[in-house]
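Standup notes
- DV: blocked on the single-chain target, sequence here:
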Amino acid sequence: MSSTEQRKTGPVVRGGASLFVWCALLSVLVHAGVALGLYHESLGQLDMSRLNRALGPMRIWRSNDDAVVDDLPGAGETGDKPNTLQEISRTLLEATLATPPTIDQTTVTAQPPRAVDTTPPPGADDLLYAPPVALPESVRAQLHAQPELAFDPVGTGGTGTQGASSGDGTGSGADEAQRLLAGSGLTATAIAPPTQTTPIALDRVGPISDSPLVNAPLQPPEVDFSKLALDQTKQLDIPEHLDDDFDYTVTTYVPQAQRTFWGTVVEPEDKRGYFRVDIEPKRSLRRLAAMPKDVVFIIDTSGSVSQAWVDRVLTGVRNGLATLNTGDRFNIMFFKENPVLLSTKGVVEFNEANLTKAGEFLSNATSSGFTDVNAAISRLLVRDVSVQRVYDLVLISDGVPTRGVMDTRDLINLITRDNDLSASIYCLGVGSRQNKQLLEFLAYRNKGFCEFVGKPEDTPNALADLFSKLRYPILKNIDLEVVGLNKDEIYPSHLPDTHQGQRLSIFGRFDQTKSFTMRLHGYNGSKQADFTFTRDLADAVAGDKNIATSWGFWKLHHLYSEMIRTNDGEAIKEQIRELRKRYDLKTVYD
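- DV (later): unblocked, structure below
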């Protein structure tokens, strides 16, 4: 480029640079002016809903323009200033009280309430401005802050050393309080201590004495009935329920009209029905243990039976002794005019030694003398039978007494009364000449049963069968409860003990075929047990006339017992004669 061209372009470039500088300076001034104008203006709109929210603590920052209390009255020349809030407050208080204002009470007049101007000042936000509230004088007086007075309980006067005061308000702490009160224009009056009065005893129990009270009334202790009820509940002996451990069979018989040889129809005198309930423990029953038993064999060796008869019986007794269980006890008696016992001291334990002695004792039995059934049995009746055991008397005889009480009725009544259902009496009648009525009634009225043997050679097998039925007793002292039937028409009145493998039969009458429930309750030692069943007579098995005859026979037992209990012989005998005629029974009154 030539020098001429350089001279033409130079001024133009300098002029453009100057313009850029002036524009930048103008922009800075404009922005500074806008910033100064908006310095006190809000940058956004306030959300009023946020004012209603519960906010947490807020941190307030002090600006540089806020006033700071630096020059407080009382500051020393060295510029020392109070450090703590308490010191600052005390300094301000002393400065204020140094020149207390004087108020002329005579010039004080009631002023009307001051009007409150609710117009916000210029520049204030209408939404955020809250006008001052004029409070009543009573409220304003309560809001006056009381001066903080230093109290020195030991009268040190704030010097750190113990003063002469003893806590009675006369030390330097009290003097400072008096001075501050005087400076504030308040009058300090001494507060009198409260008057001490003699305490009043509400419950006068008299003077306390260490000597024991004589003939003092005893105060019963508090009784916790809830605890007593709980303890009684724990002691309850709840029976073990064995409903499913027995088999139940119900058989019924209803008398029907009979047609005679001549073609006439004879209606029955009583059209009510009869039933029999057979109850038998299942072989699977294991919850009841067999109770230990005391067994006494009473063998007739009088002259009314032959020696061959006695020998057969002794063979059966030897076999029966071998079937006793561990824990059982036994004894043997030969009854005649002079009874003979294996042990005169009572039953003996079942073991090898006593079993050997029993074999020797049985070998010496001979047939002779007279038969005295009452004397033999009465010597063996025991009332205090242990609750853990059962007591069985097994009578083996032809049932024909030849001495002592000869009357069959009196003999049964005497033994039954003396026994009082403590022992169960089981009878085995042997021979072609027997008093079956005596043996039957004696057994049935004493919770037992009876077996009969026509030929003496069948005696061992009959005794073996009898001992097998009595081997495992599981329930004794059995009670019967009935719902749906008349219990007064159900027999036997006293149920025999229940044995494992033995059937228990109950007889009764009914007016209509309907459902009924029976519950049997007894004891296995000291343990209670029961079983309950419900059956419908309409679903029972049809039986024969033997059910009616058995019911009549059992009612005879009940009537004999009532005769002993009430001594009303004639009325009961009339009922017995009627039963004998209707059911074709043979009784001890024949």
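- Follow-up: The longest strand covers residues 473-483.
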